[in-house]
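dumping this here so i dont lose it
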């Protein structure tokens, strides 16, 4: 009977080893061997895929992080209505618009403007998210800081360009005789 129990115990251990080859090892050794096996599998895939595009290891490592970030950024479905269900001036018939009072038309225009603003914000958020997709958080922070510094550095140039544009618009709004007079006096546009 002891031999029978011994055989059953050995069979159970063999089955466990088949299921988990790292079962009898301590935690650090187990992790080391699992990592070695993972690297070996990756190298085999690379050898098998000669002539194909190499794997993107950075993307492979950050896949779990991306899934977590996607879950964080997912918004409730009630908040966003598909474009087909949203209001737009084009979808509202002019006869229906004419049938509304001026107050209702004003409310409708405000509602449309608010929807367009929300859509623009949502699109900007999605573009920003896609821009930094697949990058580690430390690199994103570093690049955002660089962009902010470059934006601050170019502020005087942007202000000068804005002032120039305003002057040009003002010049273009003047009558032609006055434009010609200003050009004779030395106005540069």
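and the seq i came up w/
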């Amino acid at each position: 009977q002891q031999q029978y129990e011994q055989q059953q115990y050995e069979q159970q251990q063999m089955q466990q080893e088949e299921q988990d080859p790292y079962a009898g090892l301590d935690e650090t050794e187990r992790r080391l061997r699992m990592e070695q096996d993972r690297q070996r599998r990756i190298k085999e895939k690379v050898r098998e895929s000669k002539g194909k595009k190499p794997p993107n290891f950075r993307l492979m490592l950050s896949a779990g992080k991306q899934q977590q970030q996607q879950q964080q950024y997912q918004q409730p479905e009630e908040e966003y209505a598909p474009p087909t269900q949203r209001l737009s001036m084009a979808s509202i018939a002019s006869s229906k618009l004419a049938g509304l009072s001026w107050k209702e038309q004003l409310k409708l225009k405000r509602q449309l403007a608010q929807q367009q603003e929300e859509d623009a914000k949502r699109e900007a958020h999605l573009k920003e998210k896609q821009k930094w997709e697949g990058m580690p958080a430390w690199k994103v922070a570093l690049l955002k800081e660089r962009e902010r510094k470059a934006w601050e550095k170019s502020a005087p140039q942007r202000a000068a360009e804005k002032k120039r544009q305003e002057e040009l618009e003002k010049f273009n709004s003047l009558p032609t005789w006055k434009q010609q007079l200003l050009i004779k006096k030395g106005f540069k546009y």
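The two ends are 106 Å apart (CA to CA).
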